[in-house]
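Here is the promised in-class demo. Please do not try to memorize the tokens; focus on the logic of going from shape to residues.
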């Protein structure tokens, strides 16, 4: 019998949140294609309807009780990718208390609920947790990203603390930090910005100019690193911010 390649995810159980579109969707598809049994969830269950070959559930990751009930059913989880996040565009002066709360509910509270509910099923598994954070965080200050940067910095802090707490239990925790990735929500932010800048072309240029690589990232760029971090090839990597940003943080 031939030994499986260490990058193969065959036999591993993977849970992916925010799998309906964008980065989470590409991650779910990549882990599935690499052989994992994938459990995909999203707030909007309709977005999952054409995602084949995975278990699909509607799940609001900001609802602590619903998250706890969802995870209770798992016997063992090897891979967790938590992709839920929300971008408020604005400075601290633009950010109302409601904007601030919404940013933290969706980005940070969801991470608290999901990682807390998943970890009892991962201890001892040799498993891998990945949070989708951002370079707009504790890594780099961006204009008009006050609440977003604060919340994603929190996600990085939580991920690193869990890396320390759960290393003895053989669970690795890494924050994946994308640059600007072409996703449905980025297209929404471009449309919003185009009202200020006068045209969609100007808004697209604004985001492209942030990318030294001269191209936007694609969700598959992020899925590829998640596949690697999920695999046994990455067994010596934990507590890291893995920047996949097309040269932003050179
Ligand atoms: N696109 C980028 O440029 C970029 C850059 C850095 C980091 N990120 C982060 O990557 C993650 C995915 O972003 P994206 O732009 O690919 O996706 P997106 O914003 O286009 O899609 C996000 C998905 O999350 C789901 N979702 C929203 N709230 C939810 C909730 N409460 N519970 C469960 N699901 C929920 C949505 O229904 C949607 O399917 C986010 O955390 C985002 O902050 C994105």
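The designed amino acids, position by position:
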């Amino acid at each position: 019998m031939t030994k499986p390649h260490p990058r193969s995810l065959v036999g591993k159980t993977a849970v992916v949140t925010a799998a309906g579109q964008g980065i989470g969707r590409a991650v779910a598809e990549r882990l599935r294609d690499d052989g994992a049994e994938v459990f995909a969830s999203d707030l909007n269950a309709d977005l999952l309807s054409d995602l084949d070959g995975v278990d699909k559930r509607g799940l609001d990751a900001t609802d602590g009780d619903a998250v706890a009930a969802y995870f209770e059913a798992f016997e063992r989880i090897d891979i967790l990718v938590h992709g839920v996040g929300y971008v408020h565009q604005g400075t601290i002066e633009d950010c109302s208390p409601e904007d601030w709360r919404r940013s933290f509910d969706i980005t940070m509270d969801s991470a608290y609920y999901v990682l807390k509910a998943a970890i009892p099923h991962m201890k001892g598994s040799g498993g891998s947790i990945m949070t989708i954070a951002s370079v707009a965080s504790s890594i780099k200050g961006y204009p008009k990203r006050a609440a977003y940067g604060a919340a994603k910095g929190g996600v990085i802090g939580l991920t690193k603390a869990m890396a320390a707490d759960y290393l003895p239990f053989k669970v690795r925790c890494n924050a994946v930090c994308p640059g600007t990735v072409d996703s449905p929500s980025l297209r929404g932010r471009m449309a919003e910005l185009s009202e200020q800048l006068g045209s969609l072309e100007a808004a697209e240029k604004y985001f492209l100019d942030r990318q030294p690589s001269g191209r936007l990232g694609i969700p598959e760029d992020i899925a590829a690193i998640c596949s690697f971090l999920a695999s046994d090839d990455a067994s010596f990597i934990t507590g890291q911010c893995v920047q996949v940003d097309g040269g932003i943080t050179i």
